[in-house]
Amino acid sequence: MAKIITMPRLSDTMTEGVVAKWLKKVGDKISEGDILAEIETDKATMEFESFNEGTLLHIGIHEGESAPVDSLLAIIGNEGEDITPLLYLGKPSSVPAPEAPPTPKVEDKKEEAINATAPIASLPKGVVVVTMPRLSDTMTDGTVATWLKKVGDAVVEGDILAEIETDKATMEFESFNEGTLLFVGVQEGQTAPVDSLLAIIGPTGTDITGIAENYKKDGSPVATASEKVETSKAETAVAASEKSEESVQVISDGKRIFISPLAKKIAEEKGINIAQVKGSGENGRIVKSDIENFVPIASTPKSVSISPATSQKAETASVKPFVPSGEVFTEEIKNSQMRKIIAKRLAESLFTAPHYNLVIEVTMDEAMKSRAIINSVPDTKVSFNDMVIKASAMALKKHPKINSQWREDSILINHHVNIGVAVAVEDGLVVPVLPFTDAMNLSQIGGSVRDLAGRAKNKKLLPTEMEGSTFTISNLGMFGITEFNSIINQPNSAILSVGAIVEKPVVKNGQIVVGNTMMLSLACDHRTIDGATGAQFLQTLKQYIENPVTMLA
C-alpha cells in the first residue's frame, strides 16, 4: 500500500522546509534507513531518512522549493501502484463538483478519484488533526510525558499542548492552530509513531465522530496535511497578529517582553514579575521552564514554596520497596523512549560495524602543570577532558581518515571537526556536539562543554545540538575507571574512551620515579580505519597531550 511522506518537522521551531537536494529519484528502490533528501530547516540542513520500503513513486516538492511542515513531500509504494487518489489528498483544495464525466484525460481521472474519496477525507470546517511531530532527525516514535491541555480547553497559536519525550530529550510541543481541544489520541505515558494522530483541534461543539477511527484505519495523515495547509493559508493574517499579541507583554517602562502563553499563565498564578525573568527561548522568549526555575532576588515563602504535587512526587521517589529476606523479588521498570533508542542504535553499531580497539598510555605530568598555570588566570577553568578534546580535534585535522563515515559505495571524509561529548543523564546517555571544535580554544571548549552538559541533565538540549558529530569522546575517569572500551556512535567511524589519571611508579631516564599516566582506548570501524591509521592518530594525540604547548603552534 502506498504511503505518503510529509515534510518532517526537524526542529521544534520549524514551520516549513526547503528541499536542498534529492538523493533518490522517481522509480528508485527505497529501503528503510535510506537517505531520501537533504532538507534545509530554520537551523540547519539535515539528511532525512526513509522509515518505509518500496519504490519512490512521486516527488511532491522539487529541489529548491519550500513547503510547510506536513505537506506532501513524496509517495512510496509498490512499483506500478495507482497513486492518483493520494496525489489529490496531498494537496490543499476544495471539494469539487459532485460528478465529472469520464474522459481519457488525466485531469478527469484525477477528478473521479477525488469524488470517490472526498466523503472519507473531508473534515468539518475549522477542524485540524495534529500528528505526532518528528522533533529530531532520528526520531521514529514519541512518548507523551505530560498533557498541558485537556479536552475542552481553548487553544491559541503558541500554546504549549504537551511535553513529548523523544529519543534525545523531552521537549515542549506548541500548537500552530487555534480552537478547542476536541480529542486526545495519545494518553500520558503512551508511545506512538511519528505522524500518528496526537490530537484534534477545532471549533467548540464540532462533531468529530469517525475522524479518529478513520484516521487510525487509514494510517496516513493525508487528509490532515491538506486541511492544515488550507487552514493556515486562510488565517495567516489573523493568526500572525494574535500570536504577536499573545507572546509579547508590555510593562510600565515600555519594555517589550516576549513570553509564551503558558509561561505567562504560570507566572500570573505564582505572582512572578516577568520583568525579572531571563528568557532562554528564541529571541529571549520566556518559556515554561524559565518560570518554573525562576528564583527571585528577594526570596519569599510564596515564590520558593514547593507545590503539594512536587513534594508528593519527591516522597514517592524516595520510598524504597520492602524486600523480604530470603525471598525472590523483582521490579520491572518501563523503558523510556531514550533507553529504547540507545539499545537500538548501539546494537546496530556493534553488529554492523566491525569494531577493534587500540590502547595507548599517556604521561600526564606536563598536562597537569599546564592546566594549573591556565587555571591560575582569573575566571578561567579548564579540565583535563577539555585538553583531550582540543588535542583530539587537532589530531583529527592531521588524520582525516579517522574523521570519516562509511557508506555502501564510498567513504565520506569530513574535513570539518565536530566532536560529540558523551554525557550521562538520568534516563541514559546523550551526545551534545561542539561544532568546529578545532577552531575553539581551551576556554571556549570548557565553557561550551559545561553549558551543554548542564542543559543535557536538565533535558533542555535542542535536537540540533546533538546532531552532526564526526568523532565522539567518552570519559569515565571521574568515576575512577582506568580503562574501558566504547561502542562507536554511528555514523562516526571512531570513539575515544578516556580513563582516570593514575599516580604510579614509572621509568624515566633509567630511574623509577613517581609519575601520572592516563589510558586512552580508540574504538575503530575496520571498514573505514585500518589499524596503522588508528595507531598513527593515537601517536599524534599522545604528543599533543604530553606536550600541551604544541597545541598553541
From TrEMBL:
Q: Which GO terms describe its molecular function?
A: acyltransferase activity
UniProt keyword annotation of Heme present: no
Query: What Pfam families would the database entry show?
Result: 2-oxoacid_dh, Biotin_lipoyl, E3_binding
Q: What is its EC number?
A: 2.3.1.-
Cofactor(s) recorded in Swiss-Prot or TrEMBL: (R)-lipoate
Q: Which UniProt keywords apply?
A: Acyltransferase, Lipoyl, Pyruvate, Transferase
InterPro entries, from UniProt? 2-oxoA_DH_lipoyl-BS, 2-oxoacid_DH_actylTfrase, Biotin_lipoyl, CAT-like_dom_sf, E2/Pdx1, E3-bd_dom_sf, PSBD, Single_hybrid_motif
Q: Which GO terms describe its biological process?
A: pyruvate decarboxylation to acetyl-CoA
Similarity-based family: Belongs to the 2-oxoacid dehydrogenase family.
Protein name, per record: Dihydrolipoamide acetyltransferase component of pyruvate dehydrogenase complex
